[in-house]
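Deliverable D2.4 — example input (structure tokens):
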């Protein structure tokens, strides 16, 4: 990864990732039930208990899951494969090559990067995420945490217009979590919309512009970042566990003078 010059960042287009009346059916059950939401120049966290639909919503936003109705849109147009980068909840499911180097390079290749530019792009992504020593390792031999870092590297190298991460902090120690968060911050500095679906909200609550709480495949509640950092009520009302730091802030009364959150997407 390379730092982008300030002028280029300021001139970067602001993209909008959107679901419009989106439905996903698993048999007779609606995993996503007519969901409509839009993510612009921000980091949005999808939250909710197990089975709430947040992972399905993330996959739909990334264009990785076919919709039974409605649409996934980027800047008002139908989302095309590769427009939004997507790191899956189970990273091994997205590996397409035998070694780490080949798998990360596959992303650059799919994005039509020039062949002579691909090795440098792979090296940059691997170095930023601290996995340069794994480039020759078979993807089948990676630990759970290593696999997650490789999957995220393979997503970033696409240089996507938007980034969707499902459980990006799972199986990571504090050092590697810091690397992933640094990558997310770098992409946000470049005005790339980022969506994080997570059970563990603690690593993301202080970075979030909004938290969208899912329940039964629907958008149940939308909370702005300030309220999400200081109030437990949005979490409790949607069946999610408030991060410890939020509970502490709520007890200290840090959110009593703020109003945040609403029932609309």
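Example output (designed residues):
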């Amino acid at each position: 990864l390379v730092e982008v010059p300030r002028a280029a960042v300021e001139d970067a287009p602001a993209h909008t990732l959107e679901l419009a009346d989106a439905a996903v059916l698993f048999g007779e059950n609606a995993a996503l039930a007519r969901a409509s939401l839009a993510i612009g120049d921000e980091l949005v966290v999808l939250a909710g208990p197990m089975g709430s639909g947040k992972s399905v919503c993330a996959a739909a936003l990334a264009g990785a899951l076919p919709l039974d109705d409605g649409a996934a849109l980027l800047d008002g147009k139908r989302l095309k494969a590769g427009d939004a980068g997507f790191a899956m909840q189970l990273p091994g499911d997205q590996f397409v090559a035998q070694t780490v180097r080949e798998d990360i390079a596959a992303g650059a290749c799919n994005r039509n990067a020039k062949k002579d530019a691909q090795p440098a792009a792979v090296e940059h992504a691997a170095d930023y995420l601290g996995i340069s020593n794994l480039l020759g390792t078979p993807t089948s031999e990676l630990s759970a945490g290593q696999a997650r870092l490789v999957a995220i590297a393979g997503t970033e190298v696409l240089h996507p217009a938007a980034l969707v991460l499902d459980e990006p902090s799972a199986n990571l120690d504090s050092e590697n979590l810091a690397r992933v968060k640094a990558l997310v911050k770098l992409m946000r500095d470049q005005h790339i919309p980022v969506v994080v679906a997570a059970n563990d909200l603690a690593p993301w609550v202080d970075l979030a512009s909004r938290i969208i709480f899912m329940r039964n495949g629907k958008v149940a509640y939308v909370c702005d970042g300030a309220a999400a950092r200081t109030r437990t009520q949005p979490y409790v009302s949607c069946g999610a566990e408030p991060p410890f730091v939020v509970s502490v802030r709520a007890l200290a009364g840090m959110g009593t003078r703020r109003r945040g959150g609403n029932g609309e997407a």
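The mean pLDDT is 88.
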